[in-house]
Amino acid sequence: MQSISLKELATRLDGEVQGNGDTVINSVATLEAAQAGQLSFLANPKYRSQLESTQAEAILLSSKMQSEYSGTAIFVKDPYVAFARVAQWLDTTPKAADSIHPSAQIHASAQLGEGVTVGANAVIDANVILGDNVEIGAGTVVGQGSIIGSNTRIWANVTIYHRITIGQQCIIHSGTIIGSDGFGYANDAGKWVKIPQTGSVRIGDNVEIGASTTIDRGALDDTIIEDGVILDNQIQVAHNAVIGAHTAIAGNTTLAGSCTIGKHCIIGGNCAVAGHLSIADGTHVTGSTNITSVVRERSIMSSATIAMPNKQWRKNTVRFRQLDELFQRVKTLEKAAESKEI
Description:
CATH topology of the largest domain: UDP N-Acetylglucosamine Acyltransferase, domain 1
Family: Belongs to the transferase hexapeptide repeat family. LpxD subfamily.
Keywords: Acyltransferase, Lipid A biosynthesis, Lipid biosynthesis, Lipid metabolism, Repeat, Transferase
Number of domains: 3
Shape: flat
Largest sheet: 10 strands, parallel
Function: Catalyzes the N-acylation of UDP-3-O-acylglucosamine using 3-hydroxyacyl-ACP as the acyl donor. Is involved in the biosynthesis of lipid A, a phosphorylated glycolipid that anchors the lipopolysaccharide to the outer membrane of the cell.
Pathway: Bacterial outer membrane biogenesis; LPS lipid A biosynthesis
InterPro entries: Hexapep, LpxD, Trimer_LpxA-like_sf, UDP_GlcNAc_AcTrfase_non-rep
């Protein structure tokens, strides 16, 4: 188990210790669950009452609270970001693979950097290039000519098709498929003619992709995911989509073909973006929203209705279907009123 003193943590976090700086921390926990040896944090004011009862060894608090709390603490600019940093330093998650397993199938033409590990029954195909310290989990397949950058971790049972490029320091979770064919067909008198998907997928550095997410390869050009993007579980990214740097997308969202998502966007769960549209940098899209037109300026976009009792929902649905009729009646009444005024 790793451990670190409060004094060292404060130095790394550019914070200030209150209490014994030699106190040792070995893990992190919530205020409610924390025990001796654990560090907790307060980022949401609604949990402030738990400060009195927590058993945490120390707490990460905002510098603004320095005059309000007398217990052992580290005061920092942003407690939640500080917590994330400490959690990384004390992380005990095992490697995706500890060595090159005897059952792994590695083609003679593949190039493996220093410190590469490959799990049981994984397949590394011809002309693959793996950078230093890449981890390939059990059962994962890396297709011909694909390139994976240094320190990237691929968990078990990931499928990476041919000629895919993945950057450094990425994390790809189990069940994800990268580089499968996009949904490209031409219609010939009612019969579908498949269009070979000859583009690729290019993923930047420091990208994290959740479990069971699918990223299609481009039809001609590449599907692109830029640096620092985070994708949740079960997301569909269609062919030739582009996701700008440091954008975050929550689970069950679907991006249709050739859409372009700007940088630093946040897209909630269960959203859909129609094909060939663009979304401006910094846009927030709330959950269950359907984007069907271009978003040209940074904004907050919403479209889903909120949950309500079924009886009320049924009434509102009927009224919604009557909107056009009501609109026409209002127009008629307005015209009649105008004629009387004249």
